[in-house]
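We give this protein:

***
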Amino acid sequence: MEVVNAIGRRKAAVARVYLSEGKGNITINKKDLTEYFPSGILQYVVKQPLNLLDVAEKYDIKVNLDGGGFKGQAEALRLAIARALIIIDAESKPALRAAGFVTRDPREVERKKPGQPKARKRFQFSKR
């Protein structure tokens, strides 16, 4: 099997995934998964699509992660892994979609407007 690549995005985070047959190693920016995401919850989020299809020990995953915070990066990586698994086996798409791993979360930060302190917050109104 050749290397399958996919991309996942969430907020400002971008995850580029290279999935190949192996023993279940996940390498993110040349670091191990547990080293890059010390939080068990984020490790769980990343592995969700693999655990759903019971293929966690079947593939080696190399990832380039860029931008955003750790939560956005973990969710971008989850989407990228799900997309790569669909490329390998299209039969797995309904199961991944039912679990919500195929849908890109479109929410982005709203831009700051001029004459306001933040995107929607207004300066205090003074009548006099």
Remarks:
- The first strand starts at residue 4 and ends at 10.
- The helical segments are 33-36, 40-52, 70-88, 93-99.
- The chain has four helices and five strands.
